[in-house]
Amino acid sequence: MANAASRGSHPLDTMLAISDVVTNQRYAKIYARVLTLDTPTVEELSEGFDSSTTTVYEDVKHLVESDILERVTDTQPHRYRARQIDLHVGTNEDSYQITPALFVALARREENENIQLFLDRHGVSGLATALEYGRDYVQGRMNARIMAREQDLPVLEAETILQEMRDVLLDVDPDLEASPDVDELDAAVDERSGE
């Protein structure tokens, strides 16, 4: 599996590689750190990690082979960049978008009680859904009441996770935030409310 995604032979290979990152906390943290640091070396990635440099090196090697990270220098020390991920996964009932923001949110769960609690209650699929609502929230097209009603959540829980997802999304893509158009937001709320 490790080399399959780098061959790019099938979208399923990419999905399996992404699944590794979703289910492995260290991989998510490494991806998020590479994204934040922009082309770090393994030594730079290792700073502040509980894992040894050797473990980080092995994880980076796996993520490069899986085509989640890419090596951007040929000389030592190698530098790495996070590949942009945009995968849509669907079932008969739901669809989810997997982007770098999901990996960053998963990487933050150890340090962020709100994200960890939300994950405990709603799983990775719930977090992916919260990110989708978060994108609209950042752009002024969503509020906590709507998310709470549509996802059958308490308003406070919706507001809390929307704030956390806002921080994640703006860290990943600072250009995402737009000044909300109050009239447009009211119209969107009315439309979703069925008024």
Automatic annotation (TrEMBL):
Biased region (Acidic residues) positions are 176-188
> DUF7437 domain spans which residues?
109-172
Annotated keywords: Plasmid
**UniProt-listed InterPro entries:** DUF7437, Tscrpt_reg_TrmB_N, WH-like_DNA-bd_sf, WH_DNA-bd_sf
Instruction: Tell me which SUPFAM superfamilies the record gives.
Output: Winged helix' DNA-binding domain
All copies of domain Transcription regulator TrmB N-terminal, residue ranges: 28-83
Q: Which Pfam families match?
A: DUF7437 (PF24218), TrmB (PF01978)
- Annotated segments matching region Disordered: 176-195
Which Gene3D superfamilies does this one have?
Winged helix-like DNA-binding domain superfamily/Winged helix DNA-binding domain
Record's protein name? DeoR family transcriptional regulator
Species source reads Haloplanus rubicundus
